[in-house]
Amino acid sequence: MVARRLVLALKLVAACLLAGAVSPEPVDAHPLHTTMTDLSYDPGTHALTVTIRAFADDFSAAVMPAVPRRADVVIPSDTAILRYVTARFGVAAHGGRVPMRWCGLRREGKALFVCLRGTVAGSLAGSSLSNGLLTEMFADQVNVVQASYDGQRRTLLFTPRDGAKVLP
Questions:
Q1: For the segment 152-168, what is each residue's pLDDT rounded down to a tens digit?
Q2: Whole-angstrom Cα distance, residue 25 to residue 38?
Q3: Contacts 24+ apart (CB under 8 A), 65-70
Q4: What distance in Å separates the CA atoms of residue 26 and residue 5, rounded to the nearest whole number?
Q5: Nearest 10 degrees: Cα torsion 145, 35, 75, 64
Q6: How many domains does the chain have?
Q7: What is the DSSP string of 75-129?
Q8: Could you tell me the pTM of the whole model?
Q9: How far apart are alpha carbons 64 and 76 in whole angstroms?
Q10: What is the pLDDT of residues 36-45, one digit of tens each?
Q11: What does DSSP say about strands 89-93 and 128-131: parallel, antiparallel, or unpaired?
């Protein structure tokens, strides 16, 4: 039953994200405050790749709170984005926080895709994830993380009140 509810919630989030990405509505018109993060681990290379999808207007406002919101969204610098993301999103594995490196940014419509990479020796099982992206901006923020590791795929949901969560 819980798995069914989670699948339905993810479908709703995905549909709303897609609608927001193609809608001609004003900047603040999307109904959900959410991010989708794909975290994948390659045990052969020990590479951890993180791709974060967020609404460009919300994300830019969080990274650059002093800049007024506009219809034509100003995209922050790579350095500012990396500083913001690494302060609010993290992976801790084998007793320490995994250092994340920048691997790119792309914009598709109203969405930004942020890419980060890290290195983890050993499995991600037992690692903890934290995701507080945009929670300082929106009380209804929901951050979804889909983690692929050790031949399995796990989904974690984070809200503003959540702390770190452990991957099984």
A1: 999 999 999 999 999 99
A2: 27
A3: 69/27, 69/28, 70/27
A4: 31
A5: -100
A6: 1
A7: PPPHHHHHHHHHHHEEEEETTEEPP-EEEEEEEETTEEEEEEEEE-SS-STT-EE
A8: 0.81
A9: 7
A10: 999 999 999 9
A11: antiparallel
